[in-house]
Design brief:
The protein is mainly α. The protein has helices at about 15-30, 50-60, 85-100, 110-120, 135-145, 195-205, 220-230, 260-265, 270-280, 290-295, 315-325, 330-340, 345-355, 365-370, 390-405, 410-425, 430-440, 450-470, 480-490, and strands at about 5, 35-40, 100-105, 150-155, 160-165, 170-175, 185, 210, 235-240. The protein binds glutamic acid.
């Protein structure tokens, strides 16, 4: 029985890359009459949030990629949330330690930093030097009894070549000398990704791992762990990464990357899924528009293209237009529009913001339009009337964006408190801070109260509009970003 999985980490917005991996994993399983699982990889406690998990699940569901087992519906191989599986990992780590495949490491941060520095200075690959691998059992016991903090690392052969088989790339050779003695269990007892992914893929009986090519370099560690446990390794299929039009790795600076943004923009899920499929795969007929069911029915892994797939919003729009015109009659389109935003619930969010200024019903549309549109039409001139000089305007937008990327509970009062705080530490008047934001978000001289509007727009649309405004003002280069970042951190902020 073929079993595949998608294993997102709930540390941010639901990324289109997650949708892409989920889609290919889904198709592979369904084309073989198999099962597709969803597992939440939340072992990074500091960065994982419940909200992020919720939107990831909702976004994958919106795309129509239903899973057979997962944290929300359970299943025979659960739990499907890694934070609920700690005893399982700890027992497996212990098993590796007992068998001599892993060891406790008591090295301090200072020692590790110093070691790294020296290795880099002498042109070596920075990797753990194995100091603690040679400790005797009594030394380890004594250290543990003293309560010295420790991590557990895996052993790695010192010489030789590791051969990884990838279904799309054939054999990949990686020298063992390039592979680090990976930490498997952190000092707080939590597993790292590498340990947890291997244990879970095995226990959940995953047969094929479909994931991004950025994980290829981790495969030797995983392969070693499978060997140490005496398990057979699932087949590996590393997909080419999604790219920006300039071929750099897909990033939110250059493209909206959150699935929820496309939902808020009013894309059809069928078109988004079709587009993600089209980026890496094609129907034998060459037809670009196809429903998920056709992709499943015709799925053949050998048709995956190895070229760098460029995520091009214009092409996606074109495809969405086809879906809209070719598959929705007027009646169905009316239903979709109601479902999207032209509904009573949305009106009830908007009415309190505009009621004060409405005299007749026909005042509503112009006042509410910006809450329903995509990216407002703005230009450099839109910002000309502001008192802040252009440089400061750009800085205000960038700093506000960084602030807003930290917000998890998207409530008007929290947004207000954050931006007020930002104004204080930047030592600018709140009015001056909100001016550029107001233009970026509404594109109009008059609009309803800013924080309430941001709440209605939601996090993805709000941030996308601020990013778009930054671009309109000339963008922020890598060098400028570095400078701004330093200044921002100087204000006492973690980005
Ligand atoms: N949690 C990893 C991620 O979010 C999963 C990688 C994998 O599929 O093994 O990318």
């Amino acid at each position: 029985m073929v079993r595949t999985r998608v294993a997102p980490s709930p540390t941010g917005d639901p990324h289109v890359g997650t949708g892409y991996m989920a889609l290919f994993s889904y198709c592979y399983a369904k084309a073989h009459g198999g099962e597709f699982l969803l597992r939440i990889e939340d072992t990074d406690v500091a960065r994982s949030t419940q909200q992020s998990e919720e939107v990831i699940l909702a976004s994958l569901k919106w795309l129509g990629l239903d899973w057979d087992e997962g944290p929300d519906i359970g299943g025979p191989k659960g739990p499907y949330r890694q934070s609920e599986r700690l005893p399982i990992y700890q027992a497996h780590v212990q098993q590796l330690v007992d068998a001599g495949h892993a060891f406790h490491c008591f090295c301090t941060r200072e020692r590790l930093d110093e070691m790294r520095k020296q290795q880099i200075a002498s042109g070596e690959t920075a990797r753990y030097d194995g100091a603690c691998a040679g400790l005797s059992q009594s030394e380890v016991d004594a250290n543990l009894a003293k309560g010295l903090p420790s991590v557990v690392r895996m052993k790695v052969p010192e010489t030789g070549i590791c051969v990884i088989q990838d279904r799309l790339r054939g054999d990949i050779e990686i020298d063992y000398s390039q592979i680090d003695m990976q930490v498997l269990q952190k000092a707080d007892g939590f597993p790292t990704y590498h340990l947890a992914v291997v244990v879970d893929d095995h226990l959940m009986e995953i047969t094929h791992i479909i994931r991004g090519e950025e994980w290829i370099n981790s495969a030797p560690k995983h392969q070693l762990l499978y060997e140490y446990f005496g398990w057979s390794m699932p087949e590996l299929i590393h997909m080419p990464l999604l790219r920006n039009p300039d071929k750099s790795k897909l990033s939110k600076r250059k493209n909206p990357t959150s699935i929820r943004y496309y939902k808020d923009m009013g894309f059809m899920p069928e078109a988004v899924v079709n587009y993600l499929g089209m980026l890496g795969w094609s129907l034998p007929s060459g037809e670009e528009k196809f429903p998920l069911s056709d992709m499943v029915a015709n799925f053949d892994i050998s048709r995956i293209s190895m070229g760098a797939p460029v995520f091009d919003v214009e092409k996606l729009k074109w495809l969405n237009g086809r879906w809209l015109r070719e598959t929705l009659d007027d009646d169905a389109l009316a239903d979709r529009l109601v479902e999207w935003a032209l509904n009573r619930d949305k009106l009830l969010e908007i009415i309190p913001l505009i009621k004060e200024r409405v005299e007749v019903f026909s005042d509503v549309a112009p006042l509410a339009a910006f809450l329903l549109e995509g990216l407002p039409e703005i230009s450099v001139e839109s910002f000309a009337k502001l008192k802040t000089p252009p440089e400061t305007t750009l800085k205000i937008l960038q700093f506000s964006l960084w602030q807003l990327e930290q917000v998890t509970a998207w409530q008007s009062s929290d947004l207000q408190a954050r931006l007020k705080h930002l104004a204080d530490i930047m030592d600018v008047k709140i009015r001056d801070l909100l001016g550029p934001l107001f233009i970026a978000l509404s594109g109009r001289p008059v609009a309803p109260p800013l924080f309430d509007s941001m709440q209605v727009l939601g996090p993805d649309m709000t941030r996308a509009r601020i990013r778009a405004a930054i671009e309109v003002l000339g963008g922020v280069s890598k060098k400028q970003t570095k400078k701004l970042d330093a200044e921002y951190r100087g204000l006492g902020h973690k980005k």
